[in-house]
Amino acid sequence: xxxxxxxxxxxxxRKTIPSEKSIGFVPTMGALHxxxxxxxxxxxxxxxxxxxxxxxxxxxxxxxxxxxxxxxTLEQDITIATEEKIDVLFLPETKEMxxxxxxxxxxxxxxxxxxxxxxxxxxxNGVLTVVLKLFNITRADRAYFGEKDYQQLSxxxxxxxxxxLPITIVSCPTIREASGLAMSSRNKRLSSIELEKSSVIFQxxxxxxxxxxxxxxIQKEGLIVDYIVDFNHRRYAAxxxxxxxxxxNVEI
Length: 252
What we know:
- This protein has 9 helices and 9 strands.
- It has helices at 7-15, 34-46, 64-69, 74-83, 94-97, 123-138, 150-162, 192-207, 211-219, and strands at 2-4, 23-28, 49-54, 88-90, 142-146, 168-172, 224-231, 234-241, 244-251.
- Strand 8 and strand 9 (244-251) form a beta hairpin.
- Helix 6 (123-138) crosses helix 7 and helix 8 (192-207) runs antiparallel to helix 9.
- The mean pLDDT is 96.
């Protein structure tokens, strides 16, 4: 497995890859779990080469504390990447990714202001900006994203479509714990009791007739509902569990 920490070194390697070789790309913020592994395996099945990036993107965090508390498990992540036989691991540094001090950015003026964007101003500007940068650096044929972050996935698909980016976005099913809880890097910050309580999120949004009914079930468990909204045949949820904010969604 090749490991690159600078954009220049990665781009030099990228130029050596023949045009007939397909490249799959899995962008992550690390703290890898089986959900990420499922993306990596799909990429390996569908491409000649697979690139994994790990970059905890500071511009998508609204609170410094949330950024600082985000789980960082690089040694464990490298072990997973090695075991999965990933071809390239890209570990860019913030000072290089944002050499312009975030002067230039991607802004979406509609869907990004609802759901997770309603109480997290500019969150999706940071997401779209870093994803565009990573797409330009990797020049991958396909990029793989989980459906757990469905609003993010939709916005990235729109960016690719309307900016005419030469990459295919592959959406992959949410991978869940046995309890139904969507796998997330943030789950690592939950206590055993909080993990057990969190199972009510999926059970409620999946089995309730209305968003209001789902919210009532979740609140009865002592969890704080940020929102549960039905939109475009999908039920979106964001729930505060202790100090951790979890999101999920199901098709309806």
